[in-house]
Amino acid sequence: MKKICTLFMVVCLAVLAASAQSLTPKTDSTVTTKHTVTINGKRVPYTATAGTQPVWDEEGKAIAGLFYTYYERSDVKDRSSRPLVISFNGGPGSASVWMHIAYTGPRLLNIDEEGYPLQPYGIKENPHSILDVADIVYVNPVNTGLSRAVSTLSKEDVQKKFFGINADIKYLAGWINTFVGRKGRWDSPKYLIGESYGTTRVSGLALELQNAHWMYLNGVILVSPTELGIKRDGPVGAANMLPYYAATAWFHKALSPDLQQQDLTAMLPEVEEFTINELIPAITKGGSLDAQKKKQIAARMAHYAGLSEEVILQHNLNVPAPFFWKELLRKEGFTVGRLDSRYIGIDKQDAGLRPDYAAELTSWLHSFTPAINLYIKDHLKYKTDIKYNMFGPVRPWDNSDDNTGDNLRQAMAQNPNLHLMVQSGYYDGACDYFNAKYNMWQMDPSGRLQDRMRFKGYRSGHMMYLRSEDLATSNQDIREFIKDSLPKPGQPAKYTRERSRTTATSQVVK
């Protein structure tokens, strides 16, 4: 009996030790599995490597382990011409889960055609993944996903080294340098893709990689971009939301017949022109605006936004976005989603200035959380008891000195091979499509970079790829962008005076 008890205690201690070990963040680990996926009707074999790679400090010590998943097509022998796409999500504090298992990766979570949760939860093949044309790595910054700083760092050191616009850019650039070296991808064409705050991240990384690591990119893809440090306070910030309001009202059939009968993309240019040519100047005048003119402007805004003229006048032509989300369908007892206005919610009461909760984000967490946990452990075979942070603790975040939009412009100016594509959903109220266009106009006031910029809009929200039709279109847009941004063999990266003259008169991004 004593021997049995002793054996039982040994087993228990072993189990506890194993459990403790699995809760200790690993700074360097890999698990590789082999798979196939059918993309556009063709079978594509690939390897998936899930693991952690260290972040090194100035003395060469590991101060964090970033969790990543790397997909590499396995039937390609020469990777010198094989593009590598490095993918980040946003937050800050958000894991790379969103684009990983819903957009560009070889596997998709189980959702319906419009992006709503389905049970049983699970994973299926992504027939639109870009893995047929590019290898992809999904990176989780510190405290997102399974990424963690080492336990020996103080809270203050973690804050200083990881949680801020420029600190984030600096350490991630170093991490990418290590990854590219380890995987032998220095000669590959390289692309960054970021979503939401990830667009701030990759815009800054483009210049940091170029100037601090001498790593030159072929393309940057901004999905639902943030402000990128480009200020739009005052009248511009107030006015620029109107095209998004119009798109949302159109989706919910809240507009008058003359607008509702038009297609969305046929109607929006009229609203954009009004915003630029009439609304911004009117709001700029403030209290000096003639009362009759103010009433006329309010009437036009009401016509485009699906709101009452009275409500717009009460806000002095400046309708806050949270109020719009609450007001548009108030009489029907619904709110509309911030990140995707196609989603509707139900509040405790119809009165109020903003929705009680984010209907769209609640829905997304419902479907993504079980899917990514199942996928990592059951499909990728990466075993750990560490909690997967969909949103991790990274606050307070240092937002000072945000020059990321200009950093991206500078990187493009220095590198003639660097191209930009922006992808936006018309129903995104957090990072709206019209301000995404505004970014591009202000990034390049000379107009000389316009031939390397392109904008693509989609009939969905912040994560436009959740809608199956947009999933196919947006991935194909990335394929075409990669193809178009790859220089021809022997083509030098240089400017010519002829090209400069032609580009200076090129058409502004539409």
Automatic annotation (TrEMBL):
Q: Which SUPFAM superfamilies match?
A: alpha/beta-Hydrolases
Record's Pfam families? Peptidase_S10
Q: Which UniProt keywords apply?
A: Carboxypeptidase, Glycoprotein, Hydrolase, Protease, Signal
Region forming the signal peptide: 1-20
Record region (Disordered): 484-510
Query: Is the keyword Hydrolase assigned to this protein?
Result: yes
Q: Which domain of life is it from?
A: Bacteria
For the keyword Protease, the answer is yes
Q: What is this protein called?
A: S10 family peptidase
Q: From which organism does this entry originate? A: Pontibacter rugosus
Q: What is the lineage of its organism?
A: Bacteria, Pseudomonadati, Bacteroidota, Cytophagia, Cytophagales
